[in-house]
Amino acid sequence: MEIENEYIELEKAVSRQNGTYSNDKFHVSEKLRKFLIKTGSPLVNYTDNAETNKENKFRMKRTVADFIGRSWTKGIIPYIFSKDLNYSWKSAAIRYMNEWEAVTAYRFVPYTPTVHAQYGLGHNSTLIFVQKSGCWSNLGKSSENTQEISACGGAAAAHEIGHTLGLIHEQNNINRDSYIRINWGNIKGGAGNQFKIASPVNSLSFDYDYNSIMHYGLGDYSSNGLPVMTVLDNKLSYLVSEKYNTDYFYAAYEAQLTLKLNETICKDFTITCHNAGYLSYVDGKCQCRCPFALNPADGCQTLESKNEDLFWPMDSFAFLKPIQGCPKGFTSGSVKRFKDHKGLASTVTSNFHAAGEYTNLTFVREEFCVKDKTLEGSQSEKTKWRPGSYCILRKNGKCPEGFEDGSVNFDDHDELGTTTTLGDLPDGTYVNGTRLEFCCRNDGVHTRPLELPASVPFTLYVGSSGLCQAVKGDYTQ
Ligand SMILES: [Zn+2]
């Protein structure tokens, strides 16, 4: 488009002057002016923290992002971490890049001087994760060679990466007045722009998603503590506050619109996705992404079958044995060890499902299910442990790919009796105290279900999120 360069120049000028576009401040061609009017206010401040907006850049709406080709070519996003990024921000960035990759065709690739050429991107844009005041991101791919994202340390990173992929805030959705009311009188001075409706150009197919990670909280930007937004159907208000527990269902659809999967990597995909399902790139292949419990294999038209065709990963590992016994193909073992404080019974909660003895006054007996990778058939080779927040027990000296090692030492009271072991056990030491070796990961959110053979019970340990990892199908906590 011929006004593209002019647009880019205008954006730079606006950014330098730290102001928004207005016709008296910036001289633009008639064609660009008409475009700016048609698309609403195209240079919009997309910061998410009004308190600390010194770092703000002026961001563009998604409609404009599409117009000037601001989607990431081939869905590839070269990125780099700035040196000052602390551990918590860096791990959040990794976790939520993984999350977006898990449900979309976007791929975040570490920056190298040759990475743009290697993927044939035709640009040199690189995303830089920085640690600055506020949480903010550019909208879509910038025309500059580098663009910063200050993604913050927690789940906010999912939201900011959403902006990087081109998503606007849900409350700017053109349909929003049918779903929420904006209480303009409660909005903090200067923040009104955050609640303007986006232009109807390239409006989204889905009506409104209260649950979107791109939706502000109802009280954000309040000047007086009263809600800035009110959900018209009050009983649905809870959806907004639980936004980070979603599976990015509609957000992932919207973020991929500019990738045109059906013309690119999924052009040979022939299944039509029904019932609000959509074509996506999940687990490394093109498939329908369906609403909960519908079957991707037939285009979301029937209920998904049980997990009987799932297999355990082709790895060695162990977990606490559930009272129902070990899954097929596992061996079992137990450890009986004496406790340091004689006479104080351990307690277990009423919904404790591990086999063994835990409430004896003098000893505990733990039972384990152990899987040796050599025992499993070749069909399971395709199954891998997925990102999440959970731990398993180590077996055969090495954690499966994606996990980190760790251990727990129990100071057993060996004077009361000798530790006795039976059968097959996880890695550890069982004399002079007990040391259990764990494999843990915290590279995904606990709410995204793992696909494991859940037709029989098994156990996972809680990861550092402190919350139980979801597993597809039946499970207990
Ligand atoms: Zn935002």
Automatic annotation (TrEMBL):
<feature type="binding site">
    <location>
        <position position="169"/>
    </location>
    <ligand>
        <name>Zn(2+)</name>
    </ligand>
</feature>
<feature type="binding site">
    <location>
        <position position="159"/>
    </location>
    <ligand>
        <name>Zn(2+)</name>
    </ligand>
</feature>
<dbReference type="Pfam" id="PF16977">
    <property type="entry name" value="ApeC"/>
</dbReference>
<dbReference type="GO" id="GO:0006508">
    <property type="term" value="P:proteolysis"/>
</dbReference>
<protein>
    <recommendedName>
        <fullName>Metalloendopeptidase</fullName>
        <ecNumber>3.4.24.-</ecNumber>
    </recommendedName>
</protein>
<keyword id="KW-0482">Metalloprotease</keyword>
<dbReference type="GO" id="GO:0008270">
    <property type="term" value="F:zinc ion binding"/>
</dbReference>
<keyword id="KW-0645">Protease</keyword>
<feature type="active site">
    <location>
        <position position="160"/>
    </location>
</feature>
<keyword id="KW-0479">Metal-binding</keyword>
<dbReference type="GO" id="GO:0004222">
    <property type="term" value="F:metalloendopeptidase activity"/>
</dbReference>
<dbReference type="InterPro" id="IPR001506">
    <property type="entry name" value="Peptidase_M12A"/>
</dbReference>
<feature type="binding site">
    <location>
        <position position="163"/>
    </location>
    <ligand>
        <name>Zn(2+)</name>
    </ligand>
</feature>
<keyword id="KW-0378">Hydrolase</keyword>
<dbReference type="Pfam" id="PF01400">
    <property type="entry name" value="Astacin"/>
</dbReference>
<dbReference type="InterPro" id="IPR024079">
    <property type="entry name" value="MetalloPept_cat_dom_sf"/>
</dbReference>
<dbReference type="InterPro" id="IPR006026">
    <property type="entry name" value="Peptidase_Metallo"/>
</dbReference>
<dbReference type="InterPro" id="IPR031569">
    <property type="entry name" value="ApeC"/>
</dbReference>
<keyword id="KW-0862">Zinc</keyword>
<feature type="domain" description="Peptidase M12A">
    <location>
        <begin position="62"/>
        <end position="267"/>
    </location>
</feature>
